[in-house]
Amino acid sequence: MAITVDGRLSLSYAAQLRGATGLVVTNRGFLKFSNGDFMGQKLKLKLKPSQFQQKGDKCSNRTHIYSSLTADVATESKVAIGGSYRLIDVPMSNCINSGINKVYILTQFNSQSLNRHIARAYSSSNGVTFGDGFVEVLAATQTSGVEGKNWFLGTADAVRQFHWLFEDPRSKDIEDVVILSGDHLYRMDYMDFVKSHRHSGADITLSCLPMDDTRASDFGLMKIDNNGRIISFSEKPKGKDLKAMQVDTTVLGLSPDEAREKPYIASMGVYVFKKEILLNLLRWRFPTANDFGSEVIPASAAEFYMKAYLFNDYWEDIGTIRSFFEANLALTEHPPRFSFYDAAKPMYTSRRNLPPTKIENSKIVDSIISRGSFLTGSFIEHSVVGIRSRISSNVHLKDTVMLGADFYETDAEIAELLADGRVPAGIRENTKIKDCIIDKNARIGKNVVIANSEGIQEADRSSEGFYIRSGVTIILKNYVIKDDLAI
């Protein structure tokens, strides 16, 4: 079972182990996929036995269901990534690829777009079947009383409000709950994570990344002892406080050379709790704590047995405009640090049934062009172009993330808009755009220049259809940038 709050929180019951067979099965059978067309080839997939259960493991004779939960403190989960995906697709796909087939999605307010995406992406009509599992959306509701006047106040608060899910008779065998973040880009097998947690006997296990000096101060860091037990936390330390957080990362499996290069470990916001420990923390020990990362986890280090689990692979936090921008453009690298093109562990999303992109007399360099787009006489350089995009002649996009459109305009509608002096969806002729994010359904006129040539870092001109954050220009959703404007 999985639960997601506004794309921010996802709770999942994973695989049930059956005796000493050494196979991980999803409750009553293997997770299956229909013969959908993924990555250009017909795949006939059956979930493989996970390394989580191997013959001879200490837990091989235990028949319990595991539970995981995804949390994200931002609204980025509704945002596109890589042209065709949404960030919520990352934890959802990781759950599916890890053998999790029961998913609850807890939505906050203003969640219509997310709900629609989930309904379209994770249903049998999209080529994914969950056996006896399901994906079900549960909306946040305000109840009577003082506490009921608020929506979810944070990830821990959301789980607390749905603690009854753990006490349902169907959930009596759950032993462990995994907390996952929904605004990160990575690919991970959660069963390996749970296996490490169970073998260590820890109350709580945190997944962590090795860090060097250049980035360590941007994250919450952990101090561990020689056995990998977490003994303290420090949130974004600087100077002497940063140096004090250095640890011997060979304890977690890094080589001596890697350990010297990366002497810090940063929390990923991915945790495993023993179920009873989680319930105790949320209901009795910290009944007013709203957030896991800043409140519950740091306060638990002194009282509970907490272990660090090394994840030494690509991971990116998409929590800011700049990180969202850079993570998208990094997908155009050769080779990219993260790839959506993995047929064995695919990333799932809505099947939109869009036609191929039509490209006429255009030049494309180091870019991603999503389906259903029209490119005419344009130059696309180191950019990501989303679905249903229209780019006219003599347009130059460089270092740009264009999110595309939710709809098509017919030739007749375009002609009518032009006749009335209005701007159709997409980018019109002779426009030059650099270092920019173009949100959905934006309309950019002719002879426009968007380059932030003065290097402004922060500006709010939303009344004109754009603003600037961390030096990146953002064209707002559904807004019109008129002809001949220079930004």
TrEMBL record:
One of the GO biological process terms: glycogen biosynthetic process
Q: Which residues form the Nucleotidyl transferase domain?
A: 70-333
**What is the species listed in this Swiss-Prot or TrEMBL entry?**
Acacia crassicarpa (northern wattle)
The record, for NCBIfam families, names: PRK02862.1
Q: Which UniProt keywords apply?
A: Allosteric enzyme, ATP-binding, Nucleotide-binding, Nucleotidyltransferase, Starch biosynthesis, Transferase
Which SUPFAM superfamilies would you find in this protein's record? Answer: Nucleotide-diphospho-sugar transferases, Trimeric LpxA-like enzymes
- Protein name in the entry: glucose-1-phosphate adenylyltransferase
What reaction(s) does this enzyme catalyze? alpha-D-glucose 1-phosphate + ATP + H(+) = ADP-alpha-D-glucose + diphosphate
Family statement drawn from the similarity comment of this UniProt entry: Belongs to the bacterial/plant glucose-1-phosphate adenylyltransferase family.
